Amino acid sequence: MQSAFAIVSGVVPQRSPKEVLRNVKLTLTDGVATLLGTDEEVGIRYELSGVTTDSVGEALLPTQRLSAILREVQDDTIQIEVNEEALWIRTAQSEFRLSVEDPAQFPTVAKFEDDNYFVIPGKAFRQGIQRTLFATDTESTRYALGGILLEMAPETATLAATDGRRLAVIKMNCSVHGTMENELGQPVVPAKAMALIERSIQDDDQEVHLAVHQHHVLVRSGLSTIYARLVEGRFPRYQDVIPDQCETTIEFVVGPFLSAVRQAMIVTNEESRGVDFALEMAR
Fold it and tell me: DSSP secondary structure string, 135-166?
């Protein structure tokens, strides 16, 4: 419960004109419990395993309070009970009474029902997000820079991100389930959604299913389904920045190189924002 709630609560907005969005919705149908969270730009459905229930229904769980409860309790299981007057959270040692809100006001989160989609290895997709997400610019007025570009082909997926000063591009293998007949364009997925997808990939061996639509994408990863509205705007032609051929290449041992960069970064500031590299031939 704690790990699932932590993933879903990652999309819940801290501030919103719609107070209902500051909750996580719990639904019980046919013995299956599902957590839903959304800010109406990004949403997630997460199916909980190991749930015991003999009822159906839905309830809103206050995100901040329940997160605090789950951090503090030591029990392996918790009991949730909802009636018209209160929401009860019970463990072996504790009991919490929380206020209730109307779950009917909570917006829906799309299910993954596509027959045609891309299949990407979970480990490769998670690493691809980690190696490009840092280069996004969520505060830019050029909205396309606030996300990661997806270039999908039948056998190769390319992720690219830039904030105008730095650029990160990574390619990975993928495959297609079904058929891909429509032109996909250049979808840009918000950085918040990509970070959520990265956290949802909890098994390196699992497959990630990606369905691209005109205005949104759906991603199925393990027990979760993530919806994300695409970022508007044109992404820069990153291909013009990276040369097709390089006359000179330099190989580094990763560990010592990373350590040297981190040490140099200690004395950088907001004005310099950079580390100078001085390279010379070994004698």
Answer: G--TT-SSGGGGEEEEEE-SSEEEEEEE-SS-
Q: Which CATH number is associated with domain 117-240?
A: 3.10.150.10
Q: What share of the chain is helix, strand, coil (3-state, %, to 5)?
A: 25, 30, 45
- List the alpha helices (DSSP H) in the chain: 2-9, 63-72, 122-130, 191-200, 254-265
**161-202 pLDDT per residue, tens:** 998 888 999 999 999 998 877 677 789 999 999 999 999 998
Residues 215-242 pLDDT 10s: 999 999 988 999 999 998 889 888 888 8
Instruction: For CATH 3.10.150.10, list the domain ranges present in the chain.
Output: 2-105, 117-240
DSSP SS3 for 167: strand
Kindly indicate whether the domain formed by 2-105 is annotated with CATH number 3.20.20.70. no
Q: Do residues 147 and 189 make contact, with C-beta atoms less than 8 angstroms apart?
A: yes
